[in-house]
Amino acid sequence: MTALRQPIWTEEAYLxxxxxxxxxxxxxxxxxxxxxxxxxxxxxxxxxxxxxxHIQLRNGPCSIHTSDMRVRVSRAGAFTYxxxxxxxxxxxxxxxxxxxxxxxxxxxxxxxTSTEGYDRGKKFQHYRTLESLQEYxxxxxxxxxxxxxxxxxxxxWLFTEAVGLEATLQLPSIQCSxxxxxxxEKVTLEEELPRNIEDEA
Length: 201
Hints:
This protein has five helices and 14 strands. The chain is of the alpha+beta class. It has helices spanning about 10-20, 40-55, 115-120, 120-125, 180-185, and strands spanning about 1-5, 25-30, 30-35, 60-65, 70-75, 80, 85-90, 100, 105-110, 135-140, 145-150, 155-165, 170, 175-180. The protein has two domains: about 1-35, no CATH class; about 40-190, Alpha-Beta Complex (tt1808, chain A). The strands form three sheets. It has a six-stranded mixed β-sheet with strand order 1-3-2-6-5-8, with helices on one face. A six-stranded mixed β-sheet has the order 4-7-9-10-11-12, covered by helices on one side. A two-stranded antiparallel ribbon has the order 13-14.
């Protein structure tokens, strides 16, 4: 992501700018950052995951959102666009426009080479300040692997992972499961590509 230079942005100015923009920008403590485009595999993994969870959540109390839904991380002074977010019960927003969620229960990020360090590190540090957040899910693009963090009663986070297409991951906060076979349907991992085919960035 590339910062757009100008005097320090207020949150109000950022939201006004973002709502009029044709492209997405994340915000952190007065700076805004243009988001890079996603690869085909990234889009397919995110889409497969969304469809799987949407079917399971359709008749329940939780609502699922694509990356078009912003999340405000108030304590960190940040606005992000998770690949998938789920809110349960009464969702809260920054204003009368339901485009910036304040209280996600679960967040999913599909890892990319350019953002993996941020998703694992600083971004997860920011997300942990969300009192509503119960689960954080990281999905790999270069292996059949999903990493899973669950908030414990003492505010620590328990890590597990599901590996291989035969594996299934349980998501207790939203009472759903993710089959890795579904998540990676029609996804060709980089190491599986023929040598004469150049993978997408």
